[in-house]
Amino acid sequence: MTTIQALRGTRDILPEETPLWQWVETVARDSLQRAAYREIRPPLIEQTDLFARGIGEATDVVGKEMYTFEDRGQRSITLRPEITAGLVRSLIEHKLTAQGGVQRLWHIGPAFRYERPQAGRQRQFHQLDVELIGSRDPRADAEVIALAHSLLQTLGLQSLTMDLNSVGDRHDRQRYREALVDFLTPYRADLDADSQDRLERNPLRILDSKDETTQAIVQTAPSLGDYLSDDSQRHFERVQQFLTNLAIPYQLNPRLVRGLDYYTHTAFEIQSADLGAQATVCGGGRYDGLVAQLGGPDAPAIGWAIGLERLTLLLKQLQNAPATSMDVYVVSRGEAAEAAALRLAHGLRQAGLAVEMDLSGAAFGKQFKRADRSGAAVCLILGDEEATQGTVQVKWLATGEQAAQSQGDLLANVDGLRSQILTAQQPQ
Ligand code: ATP
Ligand code: MG
């Protein structure tokens, strides 16, 4: 019989990897909570229309990458290809934007895009998404960008670079779009096939084509920066000032346009040189029109998403994940001893210790080997003699020191045991 394997472009995150993921999630949660961001958990499936209207029909994401299907009630459903649109839908539906005011939100979870799988690019991937909704203030841009920057720093990622641009407001972009199409049309035949296609549908995306000939052509194209209105220009300058004040390094990249239609003004991407072709760890920007476009009030917003596969790839290279370890490993042999071991393990866990219990019933020697490998500080040993006497051998694995103690005393004085374990776990 052929065995069933995970779908192409999806991956199991195995137990040896989850400590790294959990660490990232904990650091993210803590730093976001400290900045007054609250977690929101929207569903993974939405009406297809949400993404068609929110992200834009002309984008790659909507045009080529969505997992769309008809459910049994003939509704068109899509697995979310990104998180922002669903989050904004939720906000509008629950009238969270109605009172004016600012909403600071975050969410972690999977997103789905039908792409060509490769390192750092999957069909099911995970994003940490952060959004600040309800402020037009350039301080909001700086706050949100600073959060991404300091989160990545806290995780130990020092050698990242940030590209920054402004794509202006809707009117700026419209004027620029016309100028760009006028400029590119004479070169049409020289553009790569994708870019030719984009010339009508989504010409701004031609700017970040990876094709060499296309790149050489757009080098001399008009620059978006020259099409910004005074207000757009002022906003962008303030954002840059704030980032400089916060000592957050960035480089201006006039050709940075983001893949989704809804972006306005500030756009940014954080890259690593250590990720090969899939270099962008974090992408984000302002999207002042999206909330209204989806039927909500006129609420300007800014946010970003970090791709967690790419982030954890980088962290693995640095081996930054903290080791997780057990406090106690319990070995036992013989029916009465095994029952006592179960009781002890249960009691110690209830008292807050991390306890692993050997279930093998194998010879003590084998169980001890596993105790050593578990990383526990202390091994509790129960055999026939201990079972009869109501005692347990407490063995400190680093030193080999061992002493008998009554089972009742051990459970009655977990605090004492805990502080001894903490001492034993201190790096030497
Ligand atoms: P790319 O240009 O690499 O396709 P994108 O512009 O489509 O990225 P966004 O929509 O901005 O990506 O998503 C934000 C982040 O999510 C990206 O910077 C990346 O880290 C991650 N990401 C996007 N698509 C994938 C994918 N298919 N697999 C893994 N991570 C992804
Ligand atoms: Mg993409």
Provide a quick synopsis of the model.
With 428 residues, the protein is an alpha+beta fold. 40% of the residues lie in helices and 21% in strands.
Description of the molecule:
This protein has 428 residues and is α+β, with helices and mostly antiparallel strands. It has 2 domains: 18-169 and 229-317, 2-Layer Sandwich (BirA Bifunctional Protein, domain 2); 328-425, Rossmann fold (3-Layer(aba) Sandwich). Helix content is 40%, strand content 21%. It is built from 16 helices and 16 strands. The chain has helices spanning 18-34, 48-54, 60-65, 84-93, 138-154, 170-184, 193-201, 212-219, 230-245, 290-293, 308-318, 335-350, 364-374, 384-389, 407-412, 414-425, and strands spanning 38-39, 45-47, 67-70, 76-79, 103-112, 124-133, 160-166, 251-252, 264-272, 280-286, 301-307, 328-332, 355-357, 378-382, 391-396, 402-406. The strands form 3 sheets. It has an 8-stranded mixed sheet with strand order 1-5-6-11-10-9-7-8. A 5-stranded mixed sheet has the order 13-12-14-15-16, with helices on both faces. The chain has a 3-stranded antiparallel sheet with strand order 2-4-3. Helix 5 (138-154) packs parallel to helix 9. The protein starts with 17 loop residues before the first helix and ends with a helix. The mean pLDDT is 94. The chain binds adenosine-5'-triphosphate and magnesium ion. Adenosine-5'-triphosphate (ATP) binds at residues 82, 113, 115, 120-122, 125, 127, 259, 278, 280-283, 305, 307, 309-310.
